[in-house]
Every structure is written in C-alpha cells, then in structure tokens.
Automatic annotation (TrEMBL):
A Pfam family hit: MFS_1
PROSITE patterns listed in its UniProt record: MFS
Membrane topology: Multi-pass membrane protein
Protein name (record): TCR/Tet family MFS transporter
Entry's Gene Ontology molecular function annotations: transmembrane transporter activity
GO annotation, cellular component aspect: membrane
Chief site of localization: membrane
UniProt keyword annotations, A-Z: Membrane, Transmembrane, Transmembrane helix, Transport
Family annotation (CDD domains): MFS_TetA
Residues of the Major facilitator superfamily (MFS) profile domain: 17-413
Transmembrane segments: 16-43, 55-75, 87-106, 112-133, 145-168, 174-194, 227-252, 258-281, 293-310, 316-333, 354-378, 384-406
Length: 419
C-alpha cells in the first residue's frame, strides 16, 4: 500500500491548511444547504402537478445533476493533479455562485434545470478538498482529518437548511440569492487566503485525457482488491444516500405534514448530530478501535437508521433515526482514508475524482429510482400506500455494504486495526 505522502508538512502548516479548506467546504455546504428545503417546492410550483408530479421532476433534476458530475468530476480531479488544488477550488466556487444567480432568476422549469446542469459542472470543491486533505495529512491521521471535513458538512447542514427554510417561508427564491452570495464570498476567501497544497514537484507531469474521462478514472479503482471492494461499498453508500436528497422533503410533507420550515429545522438537527459525530468521534474512534472496525460499525448504524425512518408512522419515531443516521457517517472517513493509502501522491486528485464520479454514477440511477418508488407508493390509484418503502430499500443497500466492506478489508485488517 502506498503511503500517499512523500514529505509530511510541518504540523502548524498542516493544521492551518486543514482549517483553510474546512472553512471553504463549510461555506459551500451552507450555500447548498440553504436551497435544500425550497428547491422541491419551487419545482412543485412550476409543474402544478402536486406532490406526485413534483417527485418525478425532482428525480429528473437529481439524475441530470449526477450525470453531469459523473462526466466532470474526473476531469476536475485530473486537472487538480496537474495544476494544483487551489485553482480548481476557486473556479468551482465562482461557477457555483453564478449558477445560483441563474436559478434565482429562473422563469421556467427548463431554466431552473439549466442552472442545475451548470452546478453539476462547477461543484468540484468537495472532490478537490478531499484531495487537498490527502496532500497535507499523513496516512495515520487522515480518518480524523476527513472526519473534520465531514464536520464542515454537518455544521453547514445545521445552519443552511434552517436558514433556507426560514428564508423560503418569506420567498421561495430568496434562499438562492443568499446561496449565491455565500458561494461568491467563498471565492473571494479562497482567492486571498487558501494556500496551494500540491507543490509542483509532486504534480502529475502532464494532463492525461484518458484518465480524465469517467471510465478511465474508474479504472483507477481497480488498482487493488481493497480499493475495488471499497469502491463497491462507496457506490452502495452513495446510492442509499440519494433517498434523502430525492424524497425526504416530499416524504416528510406527505407523511408527517412538515412544511419547508419544519424540514429545515429537522435537517439542522441532522447536521448537528452528524457534525458532532464527525468532529468529536470519528478520529478518536479510528485511533482507538481502528479504521476497519469503525467503518463496519458505521454501516451497521446506517442500516438501522434507514429501517427506522422507513417504518416510522409518526414524526417523532422518524426523529429516532436521526442519531443513528449520524453514526452512519462514521463509515465515510475511514473508507476514504483506507483508499488514499493505496495510491501515490500524484494520483490523489484522480482518486477523489473517481470516487466522486462513482457517487455521481449512483446518482444517475438513485434519484430517479427512489423518486419513482416514492411516487408509485403514494399514487392515488394505489389501494395500499407504502410511503416508507424507498427508505427500506436504502437500508437493504447499506446492509449489503456491510458484507462487502468486511470482505474487502479482511486481508489488510492487521495494518488498519490496533491489537
């Protein structure tokens, strides 16, 4: 296994760099989180087809966004390997801000869809931020660093959806303007503050088009049995997660009668629980029990969380699944950390681009799959309504991931787990 780092940065410099990228990701997540509670309702207002019709279009939006990211993510990862992480992050933030302006002004559903397409091309900062963390952090500390980055996601989802729900209660388009302001502020922050993490001597010697297209990038994931197995787990992880992105807002409205503000507060609770786990537990548990055990345990919690959410016939029972969902996030950082150990420093961007493409590939099917299952289960013609069946499917996918992860990491367990 490659250690992924040739010359570790001094500790103070490494910590400062991690703080910089943490803030960059936090602001991006705030911008994304703000529009989550309102985008499905804005789509619903443009379609006029009720919840069932809106669910179909939400699935289309999610699938198109994922398809665009599937194509663009490996290109962005390869560009960051060749030219550095900083310029890719900056261009991403600038494009994202302009995209939110387009969506704020969108007069029709098709213009709104165009905005999501642009967003798919420009939303590269998450991919490049993970490569950035791999650049500046030694292998044994990466699970904690990835957990800290996950904490930025959690904190962003504490504030973003709650703020978006509040703003959406005033005007459905107001959250998009605020999101645009945050993304453009992030561009300025990165332009003046964010340092480069990949020095010229550690960059790829040239940009290779064959490694920048989706299938070429995914071939990197076959570099070892461990990476290939964890790539399958990653696909299942992302696929299951799309049930939340695609159906949660409409599912909560249909089953529990939660409006935009209630959904915003619930998502803030999700973010609070997730951020707490990522910042305070992931690194400590990985050091204490080992990355493999934490990975498998997190997946078991995810299985339980989706099962509870799918079976909950009242809102307060659904809320029980939220802390379980937060503990599911324990599985992500160790999975990332183990995979980064297996590739060279000049391949970290390609690896993160491939992982993002894998998630986007799941997104090509996931949003449509879960949206259609949800729409079918609540259609007026149905004599039996099973609105939670999409969440139960997600539980089955994560449970399959437990089995694959256990097998994929079995041979390297002595390197990952303490005695």
């Amino acid at each position: 296994m490659s250690d992924g780092v040739h010359t570790p940065l001094p500790t103070p410099v490494r910590r400062a760099a991690v703080v910089f990228v943490f803030i960059t990701v936090l602001i991006d997540i705030l911008a994304f989180g703000i529009i989550i509670p309102v985008l499905p309702h804005l789509i619903e207002s443009m379609t006029g087809g009720g919840v069932s019709g809106a669910a179909w279009w939400v699935g289309v939006f999610g699938t198109v966004f994922a398809a665009v990211q599937f194509i663009s993510s490996p290109i962005q990862g390869a560009l960051s390997d060749r030219f550095g992480r900083r310029p890719v992050i900056l261009l991403s933030n600038l494009g994202l801000g302009l995209d939110f302006v387009i969506m704020a002004l969108a007069p029709s559903l098709w213009v709104l869809l165009l905005g999501r397409i642009i967003s798919g091309f420009t939303a590269a900062s998450f991919t490049t931020a993970n490569a950035y963390i791999a650049d500046v952090t030694p292998p044994e500390k990466r699970a904690g660093a990835f957990g800290l980055l996950g904490g930025a996601f959690g904190i962003g989802f504490i504030i973003g959806p709650a703020l978006g729900g509040f703003l959406g209660g005033l005007d459905l388009r107001l959250p998009f303007w605020v999101a645009a302001g945050l993304a453009l502020t992030n561009f300025l922050y990165g332009f003046f503050i964010l340092p480069e993490s990949l020095p010229p001597e550690r960059r790829a010697p040239k940009f290779e088009p064959h490694s920048a297209h989706p299938l070429g990038a995914l071939r990197l994931l076959r570099c070892s049995p461990t990476v290939f197995g964890l790539a399958i787990v990653t696909f299942l992880f992302y696929l299951a997660h799309y049930v939340l992105q695609t159906t949660f807002v409409l599912y909560a409205d249909y089953r529990y009668h939660w409006g935009a503000q209630a959904v915003g507060f619930v998502l803030a609770l999700v973010g609070a629980c997730d951020g707490t786990v990522q910042v305070f537990l992931t690194g400590r548990l990985a050091r204490r029990f080992g990355e493999r055990r934490v990975l498998i345990t997190g997946l078991l919690f995810g299985t339980a969380a989706f099962a509870v959410m799918g079976l909950a016939d009242t809102g307060w029972v659904f809320l029980i699944g939220i802390p379980l969902m937060a503990l599911w996030s324990l599985s992500g950082p160790p999975m990332q950390s183990i995979m980064t150990r297996c590739v060279a420093p000049d391949q970290q961007g390609r690896l993160q681009g491939a992982i993002t493409s894998l998630g986007s590939f799941a997104g090509i099917f996931g949003p449509y799959l879960f949206a259609q299952i949800f729409a079918f289960s609540i259609a007026p013609a149905r004599t039996v309504h099973l609105p939670g069946i999409a969440f139960l499917l997600a539980a089955a996918l994560v449970a399959a991931g437990v089995v694959v992860a256990a097998r994929a990491t079995r041979d390297v367990a002595p390197l990952l787990d303490p005695p």
